[in-house]
Amino acid sequence: MANSALARGDNLKFATGNDAVVQVRDIFKNYGDVEALRGINLEFERGKLTTLLGPSGCGKTTLLKIIAGLVPATSGEIRVNGRAVTGPGPERAFVFQDFALMPWATVLRNVGFGLELKGMPAAERDRTARRYIEQVGLAGFEQKYPHELSGGMRQRVGIARAFAVNADVLLLDEPFSAVDEQNRRKFQEDLLRLVELEKKTFIFVTHSIEEAVYVSDRIVLLSPRPGRVSQIIDPMIDRSASPDDIRRDAGYLDVVEEIWQGLRQYAE
Amino acid sequence: MQMSVSPAKLDNGIGASKEAPPTVLEAIRTFADERRSFWIVVSLLVLFVAWEIAGRIPISFAFPTFLETVSAFGELVADGSMHNAYFLTLQPLVLGVVISAAVGIGLGVAMGLSDKAEWLLAPVFIVLQAAPMAALVPLVTFVYGIGLTAKTLAVIMLALPVIVLNSYKAVRHVNPSLVDMCRSFQGSRMQQIFKIIIPDASPVLFAGLRLGIAAGFIGVMLAELLITPTGIGDLITYHRSVANYAHMYAAVASIIAVSTLTLAGLQYVEAHLLRPEKRRK
Ligand SMILES: Nc1ncnc2c1ncn2[C@@H]1O[C@H](COP(=O)(O)OP(=O)(O)OP(=O)(O)O)[C@@H](O)[C@H]1O
Ligand SMILES: [Mg+2]
Fold it and tell me: Where is the ABC transporter domain positioned along the sequence (chain A) (predicted)?
C-alpha cells in the first residue's frame, strides 16, 4: 500500500470547475466581539467525504451550521448545487453532536421525523424509516425510546434520520464523540460503508486526527480562532485493505504525523 | 409513632412465617420492593397512627383523634352537607383553574416564544406573583360582591401568575438543539411549536399547572374563609364556631385529600398522554 501518496492543496483556493456540491465563499462570522471565522473559501466535491479538523473553538461547528443554514454568516455566501442558500434546505441534512433526538418519541418516529415534517403519509414514512433503521444496525429497536439506548445507538438514530430524508449532502458534527474507542472504530467502518452505499457528499467534523485520516477523502485543517483554512490534505488511503492493515500502513501513519505536526504549532 | 406500627407488623410477619415459611414474608417483601403503592400505604398508615396517638394524648382539647374525624366525615357525607359544600366549592375552583390553565399556558407560551410578549407581560406577572394575594382577596369582594365571580377571581388571582411564569420558563428552557433539528429539516414555525417546543416544555408546563392548581385551592379556601362563608370554607368555620372539632377536621382533611388526588391525577395524565417514555421508567 505504498501507493497512498499525499496530494496537497497548497494553493488554498483550489481549482473550481470540478463537481462541487457545496461552495463556501468568503465566509466571515462574528459572534458579537468574537471573531469565529475569517475568510473561509472551500469547495466540497460530490460523493466525497471531507473532514473539518482543528483545535477546539476554531469554528468547526460554526462553519458546519452556516453551511446547514442554521446560523447566518456575517458576510459571504454558501452555494449548494450552484444556488446561493440562506436557510436550511432539503438537499442538506444535519447530524447533531448531542444527537438531538426527541425523548418523547420512539426510534421509529425519530428516524421518520424529517419525513413527518414534510408531510409524508405515515405508512410510507414508517417504511422508509424502518429501512434506514435496519441500515444503521438498529433493527428490533424501532419501538424503543432514546433513553433506552446507549450513546452509540442514539447517534445511529440521528444518522438514520439524516439519511431518511435523502439529502445530497450530510453534515455531521462530531458524530462519534460520545462513543468509546472500540465502538468508534466500528462506527467509522460503518460510516465508510454508508458512504460507499449512499453515494452522498459528507462533511464531517472531528477532533480525532486518526479518525479524519481514516475516513476522509479530503481533510481541511482550520487554524485557531479566528478560524481560517490553514491546510488541505488528501490522504489517498487505499480502502480496499482491511481496517487493521490500513491503520498500520505507512502512508496512513505519515498523513497522521503530518497533520499532527501541522496542529502542533497551535498547541504550543 | 413508628414503634407502634412495627411491633404489630413484626408479629404478623413471624406468625405468618411459622405457618407457611417463605411465601407470605417473601410476598410482602417482593411487594414492598416492586410496588410504590405499598410505601404510599405505609406512609399514610404512619401518619394516621401518629394522628390517632396525638389525638388521644391529647395535644389539644380542640384536636380530635383520627377515628373521631373519620366518623365525623361519615356523618357529614350521610347528612349531605359534604356534597353541598363541595358543590359550592368546586364550581369556582374548576372554573378558575380551567381559565387560569388556558389563559396562563397561552400567555406563558407566547412570552416564551416572543420577546415582545415577554417584555410586555413578564413584569406584570412577576409583580402579581410576588404580591401577597391574600391581602388582595378582600378587595375582590369589595368589587364583585360575594358570589361565584368573586370566588372564581380569587382562584385566578392565585393560580394564574404561577402558571404563566412556569409556562414561560418551560418554553425558554426548551433544548435549543431540538429546535435546530426541526429547522434543519425545514419544519415550519407551527411544526416547531407543536411538535418540538410544547412537548419538550411539557414537564415544566405541567409542573406549573400543578403549582397553579395547588394555588387555586388556596385561593378558593381564602375566599371562603375570608369573604364568602360558603362551601367547604363555611363547613370549617361553622363547625369551629360550634366546637365540633372532629367535623371541622373532617372538612379540612377532605379538602387536602381532594387537592392531593387532583394533583396526582394530573401527574398520571401527563405521563400517560404526553410523555409516553416516562411510563417505561
Ligand atoms: N452562539 C454563540 N455565541 C457566541 N459565541 C459563540 C457561539 N457559538 C460559538 N461561539 C464562539 O465561536 C467560536 C467557535 O465555536 P465553535 O463551536 O464553532 O467551535 P468548534 O470548532 O466547533 O469547537 P469544538 O471543537 O470545541 O466543538 C468559539 O470561540 C465559541 O466560543
Ligand atoms: Mg463543535
Answer: 22-249
CA distance B15 to A247: 70
Query: Is A140 part of the contact surface with chain B (CB cutoff 8 Å)?
Result: no
Residues A169-203 pLDDT 10s: 999 998 887 777 777 888 888 888 888 887 889 99
B73-279 in CATH: which number?
1.10.3720.10
Q: Which three cell numbers stand for residue B38?
A: 405499598
DSSP B53-107: HHHHTTS-TT---HHHHHHHHHHHHHTTHHHHHHHHHHHHHHHHHHHHHHHHHHH
Radius of gyration, alpha carbons of chain B: 24
Q: Distance between CA atoms of B220 and A235, rounded to whole angstroms?
A: 74
Quote the pTM value.
0.81
* Ranges of each domain in chain B: 7-61, 73-279
Domains and CATH numbers, chain A: 5-91+169-263 (3.40.50.300), 98-166 (no CATH)
Q: Residues, chain A, total?
A: 268
Interface predicted TM-score of the whole assembly (ipTM), two decimals:
0.86
State residue A246's pLDDT score: 77
pLDDT 10s digits, B143-180: 777 788 888 998 999 999 999 999 999 999 999 999 99
Q: Which residue from B minimizes the CA distance to A145?
A: B277
Written as nine digits, the cell of A86 is 440562506
Pick the ligand that lies closest to the CA of residue A59.
1
* pLDDT the model gives residue A16: 47
C-alpha atoms less than 13 angstroms from C-alpha of A176 in its C-beta half-sphere: 21
- Selected residues 58-117 of chain A with any CB under 8 Å from a CB in chain B: 65, 68-70, 87-90, 92-94, 96, 98, 100, 102-104, 113-114, 116-117
Provide the edge-to-edge strand list for the sheet that holds A92-95: A7-8, A229-234, A218-222, A49-53, A201-206, A169-173, A92-95
CB–CB of A88/B184 below 8 Å? yes
Q: Which residue has its alpha carbon closest to ligand 1 atom 31? A: A57
Are B105 and B163 a contacting pair, CB within 8 Å? Answer: yes
Which residue bears the cell 418523547? A104
